[in-house]
Structures are given as structure tokens and as C-alpha cells.
């Protein structure tokens, strides 16, 4: 069992986080100051992971990181903070942090970080080199999600089966949430490399400073704060498949380094003189046309041609009407299994809403919507009234399907005419602000064709904050 030390001067956060982690199979201990945390770590020294707030009264998180790494450089360190600042993230990662998570903390995100392959690379502080190099486990069997019955679905399946056994590089085009990574896993699972690692990296979340280290790794002492050797994603994927999502977000300098690796099948970790040979199949994904990107000068033409050995276009959910309810039933079956329920299906009104809605978040949005409704459902049928209000409030002609939606139908309510009681019943500031935020983000994403980098710039937030919001709202 992994043992986690939580260091935060907010006692409530410590208690809530410790309780959540213990319910998920982790052992925990807490400290309410930097000094207390360092002392506890030094005295016990049996912690696998440290989760530390960045802003503490006596030190900051990076200071604590350095002191704890000096005691045991193999421990995994995660920094949490309410300050969404890319500079802090870069500093933390350079100092040897495993990851950086912004508040409010999202439980699924924390568990995903704790279950990263490299957090399993050692036990009780002893690193196993062979596990660190192994990357992720072999990909699961091909997902049923893409086995629709429409001509479009059958053609997609045919193309996957055609390209999977080859060693071709593939560009997967599709809007955010269409399932590009699942498609890539399908290709890997049907390939000759299926028993080797499948390693995925979201390039959209990487800054220029972090990208090279994540792709190729670094050695201890190669830059300030590099207190341990780091295995890059290419090395982890050796013998298998590497999937680079949102490839168009890589800087031009990193693109040049990537081109050399593809051409020579060799690379060097940052700060190392030793070349490492690598044998990987490369799958990349983008929500913008890379040919248009190189013609604009934002993507290298030679790199584009290296990747463009085969392309797959994954259509948005709104163009897959024939398969839409198939996907809905698939997600409901998974929600039933997850929640231990036996919900049998959807009423006619909900089917009508599903077919009318344009699903800007595509399959990811549908999955989250159905999971949310299944969680709240007390019966054996999902109904139109259970559809989230932030969706139905902006669909003309179906507001009558939603019962008790409260302020979600604000356009239909005259606030001045509401009594104190009806205000109390219908109006909650926090949920209203969340709905406004949801609608703004969704509108911006539609305007920029789901390009998250552009959306973040227009919203004047960093990409990690946007990703957290997308996950929070199920977009």
C-alpha cells in the first residue's frame, strides 16, 4: 500500500484529502506546516508520495521539495496550489516534482496522477529501474465504442483494421472529445506491438520549457532542480507506440528535436552525451489541419510529411446521428457497472433531447452527462427532466421537459417579480456563476473549432486552468 504525506496549512483540506485517499486504498499522514512535514518525513522516511501545498506560512512548496528530496531523492512529490501560474509549474517540475495540480482539487485528477505509471516504479522508496523503463501497460482490447452500425462507423472500423498491422505513422484528426486517444489505443491493440507499451502524452498541456524533458527525459544535474534522472516518454514507449495528442501545440524548437528523433531513431536525454536508440511507432492527433498549420508557418512542413503516412478523420458526434443512441447505451452500461445500478434505458423525451443537442464536447461530454444522470437516478429509466440544466436551458422548445431546473431557465424568469421565497428556492449564486462560465467556455470552443490553446488565449487563462474547467464541466 502506498503511504502519502499531506502537507498543507489548511487543516480542512488535509482532513478531506486524507479521507478521500484512504477510501481509495492509500495510507496517509498529515502535517500543517513545512517544518512539521519535513520533520515527519525525516523521522519516518517510509512515505512513497508527498502532496504539498505551494504556499505555506514558513516555506513554499519548492523549498519543501528540495529538502525532502535531499532526504530521499526517490520519493514522488506533488505540488497543489490555488495559484494557476505556469512559472510555478515549470519551477516545480524542474525541481523534481512529479506533477502540479491547481485548486479546487478534482478527485479524479488526483487519482489519475497517483496512478501514473511512474508512481508505480518503486515501492517504499526503492526505485526499480526496469519498471521505470517499462512505461504503461499494454493497451486494453479495442473499445466497443467505435463499433457502430452506420456506414460511417463501418468505414472507420475498416480503416483501423487496414492501418493497424502496419508500422505507418498516423495523424488522427477530430474535435476535442471525439475519442482520438481511444482510437489510437485501438490501432495499437490491433498491431504487432500490442504486447509492448502504449504511452500517451498531451502536448497541449506542455510549456516550451517542459516539453523536451517530458519527451526525451533528463539526467540528474542537467539543470537547476534536476535532482534525479527522468525517463522521457519516448524511452518509456520503446518497442511500442507513442501517442502525441495536440501535436500542433509543440514549439518550433521542440518540433526540430522531434524531427531528428524520427529520422535517426536516436535521442539524448537533456544534459546527457549518450545516445539512446529507440524503436517506436508514432501516432499523433490534432484538432486543426496540420497542412494548414505548416502553410501558416506554425508547424514544420518536414515534420508534417513524416507524420502524414496515413490520416484518420474522426467525425464529431453531431454527425453520427445513426450511432448516437448506440453510444448512449454504451455509456449507460458503463455507468451501471460503475455505480452498481440497473438503469434500463432512456425515455422518449430524453432521446429527443439527445438527438436535438449538438454535443460540442462530443463523446466525452455525452459520457459525463450520462454518468451524472445515472448517479442522480432513483428509478430504472433516465428521463428528459434529468438532463443537466446548462444544456436544456439553451435548447429552444424543450425547456418544458426540465422540472425544477431553477435559475437554469433564467431567460424565462423576471428576477424582479420573484418573491424572497422563490428567490431562495430558485436562485443560487454559485451554481449560476458556474453555468455562465460553462456557457462562455463552450461558446469560445465552438468559435475556435475546439482548439484549446486558442480558447485559453481568448479567455486569458493558462491551458491547465482550461483543462481543469473542461473536466469540471464535463466538456
Automatic annotation (TrEMBL):
Domain Response regulatory: from-to ranges: 3-118
PROSITE patterns recorded: RESPONSE_REGULATORY (PS50110), SIGMA54_INTERACT_1 (PS00675), SIGMA54_INTERACT_2 (PS00676), SIGMA54_INTERACT_4 (PS50045)
UniProt KW ATP-binding keyword: yes
Stored InterPro entries: AAA+_ATPase (IPR003593), AAA_lid_NorR (IPR058031), CheY-like_superfamily (IPR011006), Homeodomain-like_sf (IPR009057), HTH_Fis (IPR002197), P-loop_NTPase (IPR027417), Sig_transdc_resp-reg_receiver (IPR001789), Sigma_54_int (IPR002078)
One biological process term in Gene Ontology: phosphorelay signal transduction system
Domain named Sigma-54 factor interaction: residues: 146-375
GO MF annotation terms: ATP binding; sequence-specific DNA binding
Signal peptide start-end: none
Record protein name field: Sigma-54-dependent Fis family transcriptional regulator
Source species of the chain: Deminuibacter soli
Lineage: Bacteria, Pseudomonadati, Bacteroidota, Chitinophagia, Chitinophagales
